[in-house]
Amino acid sequence: MGLKFAVLRVTAALACVLMVLLMCFQPVAGNEQRMGRKLAATTLKQCLAKGGARTAFPGTSEYSTARLAYNLRERYAPSAFVFPTTVAQVQNAVFCAKQVGVGIVPRGGGHSYEDYSLGGRDGVLVVDMEGFKQFSYNKAAKTAVVGAGFRLGPLYLALWNAGKVTIPAGNCPTVGIAGHALGGGWGFSSRKFGLVTDNILEVQLVAANGTVVTANAQKNKDLYFAIRGAGATSYGIVTQFTFRVHDVSAPVTHFKYRWNDKAVLFKNFKSFQSWGLNVPAEISAAFYMDPSGVSWLEGTYLGKKTSLLPLVKTFLASAAPNPTRVEEELNWIQLILVNWNYPSNTNPNQLNNVPFTTNTFKAKSIYVNGPGLSDAGINAMINAMNTGSNAYFIYDLYGSQSAINKVVPGETAFIHRNSLYSIQMVASWSNDNNAVTQTSYITRYWKVVRTYATGQAYQNYIDRDMPLSAYYGSSLSTLIAGKKKWDPQNVFNFPQSIPLK
Ligand SMILES: Cc1cc2nc3c(=O)[nH]c(=O)nc-3n(C[C@H](O)[C@H](O)[C@H](O)COP(=O)(O)OP(=O)(O)OC[C@H]3O[C@@H](n4cnc5c(N)ncnc54)[C@H](O)[C@@H]3O)c2cc1C
Ligand SMILES: *[C@@H]1O[C@H](CO)[C@@H](O)[C@H](O)[C@H]1NC(C)=O
């Protein structure tokens, strides 16, 4: 699902004001520190220049532009940005970061909830992978090779144009495939095709010692395990993915049932939950609610409208009467457009030009396993939705019949394989004075739900306040062993990366 509801469409003018603000943002430093930093910057500049990739250093307009991230909450100041277009240039960036002694992180689409692709702290070298746009489709093998610089919109379009195929990714066209795939990747066909991470057949990455490594089911199996769920930054910079792709040439149906009545939240949620226990994998769906009393069920059926209706009958029978109903039969690429609120007759090429939007927010997540929350739990959860907040809550259905839950938990580093749904809670604000209050609403909500649910959380909705065990559970010790082997000096780190011990 995603954050489309709270998306703030930043106009060009506003973006300019923002860039000026960012340019003025300089960390306070003593004289000596400043000189040390200047020296490091000079060395870094000279070293990166040898690779020949475009760079952006503080004090330039290129730097201010590059510093824009989806979440404006943390405005980290990297030591520099580098924009490689070849694997050799990525290798050189790793070499330079080590030589100068600065941190280094890769950036895909820049949608990390905690701005970890800006380093998660000041002074890190950001390797922006946007230049990696290689794409090829193998019809016979049903696979696609995809560069780490793709965003979801252009990737959906490329796959559709190549052979009416897809990967089961999320709805937001500007999210980067790299971060999305390496931490999971749930979308409106995941119950049928699995998470995006389950469809990674191979990656090519630049490891901490500068070597180019291939990881797949035969080669470097430990790395192949680790990057599917815990692949963000910790083990290296992924330059290229090979994905298993899926035929979506047949008609599909988009559905949405919407209510605007606070009094029916309990009834609708309970109906969603019991329906969700027993839904065929051809349906992927999410439930939404917020304190204003709006609620809806939205999703995709991989089939025609006439065969959808019997499958949502039990949900509609137990939910409140008379929702606003949408049931639209479409082709797959129209569905992708509609999922992002474009009209279905929009030219699909628009997916290559979706404007990069921003937001200022804090999010948390938690998994609920079957059979779901008790009535007391649902009541407590709804009561915890503070009316003073503009927070909203999204419940992404996983469920027993889904391809997601058919993967054996120890097969990949993604451990959340026994879940009925994940809950995402998002609070956003435009005035920073409201940050603490808004954040406290969802924290309180999370604590209430925690007493009824698992302590697991979704690593792609990364939240600085969670322990790593919530994301990686029993796979954490294997991940630490892999980290020791592949990055013994902890070259690739951020506040929630896989540690050495
Ligand atoms: C508006 C919005 C909608 C969303 N919708 C969904 C959804 O429907 N389903 C879902 O599952 N998630 C969704 N998400 C969450 C999303 O999957 C994560 O935020 C994801 O990490 C974003 O990837 P990115 O490449 O855009 O982000 P980035 O910030 O660029 O990267 C995220 C992390 O991955 C690391 N990374 C990036 N590139 C590489 C690389 N090449 N090699 C190694 N590590 C790398 C970064 O260093 C960072 O730690 C959404 C997020 C937003 C903001
Ligand atoms: C880099 O590290 C990997 C993992 O330890 C190892 O297999 C490879 O040989 C190393 N390469 C070099 C050039 O040291």
H/I helix tally:
16
For the record, give the distance between the C-alpha atoms at the N and C termini, rounded to a whole number.
35 Å
What structural category do the secondary elements indicate? alpha+beta
CATH topology of the largest domain: Vanillyl-alcohol Oxidase, Chain A, domain 3
The share of residues in extended strands comes to 15-25%
Bound ligands, named by name, code or SMILES = flavin-adenine dinucleotide, 2-acetamido-2-deoxy-beta-D-glucopyranose
Main sheet: which strands, in order across? 15-12-14-13-17-18-16
The structural domain count equals 3
Shape: globular
CATH architecture label name of the largest domain: 3-Layer(aba) Sandwich
Keywords: FAD, Flavoprotein, Nucleotide-binding, Oxidoreductase, Signal
InterPro entries: BBE, FAD-bd_PCMH, FAD-bd_PCMH-like_sf, FAD-bd_PCMH_sub1, FAD-bd_PCMH_sub2, FAD-linked_Oxidoreductase, Oxid_FAD_bind_N
Protein name: FAD-binding PCMH-type domain-containing protein
Glycosylation sites: 209
Give your account of this protein's structure.
InterPro entries: BBE, FAD-bd_PCMH, FAD-bd_PCMH-like_sf, FAD-bd_PCMH_sub1, FAD-bd_PCMH_sub2, FAD-linked_Oxidoreductase, Oxid_FAD_bind_N. GO terms for molecular function: FAD binding; oxidoreductase activity. Pfam families: BBE, FAD_binding_4. It comes from Physcomitrium patens. Its cofactor is FAD. This protein has 501 residues and is an alpha+beta fold. The protein folds into three domains: 76 residues, Uridine Diphospho-n-acetylenolpyruvylglucosamine Reductase, domain 2 (2-Layer Sandwich); 114 residues, Uridine Diphospho-n-acetylenolpyruvylglucosamine Reductase, domain 3, CATH 3.30.465.10; 222 residues, 3-Layer(aba) Sandwich (Vanillyl-alcohol Oxidase, Chain A, domain 3), CATH 3.40.462. Helices cover 33% and strands 21% of the residues. The chain has a seven-stranded antiparallel sheet with strand order 15-12-14-13-17-18-16. Strands 5-6-10-8-9 form a five-stranded antiparallel sheet. Strands 1-2-4-3 form a four-stranded mixed sheet. A hairpin with a 4-residue loop joins strand 13 and strand 14. Helix 9 crosses helix 12. It is globular and about 70 Å long. It binds flavin-adenine dinucleotide and 2-acetamido-2-deoxy-beta-D-glucopyranose. The site of flavin-adenine dinucleotide (FAD) has 38 residues, from strand 3, helix 6 and strand 10.
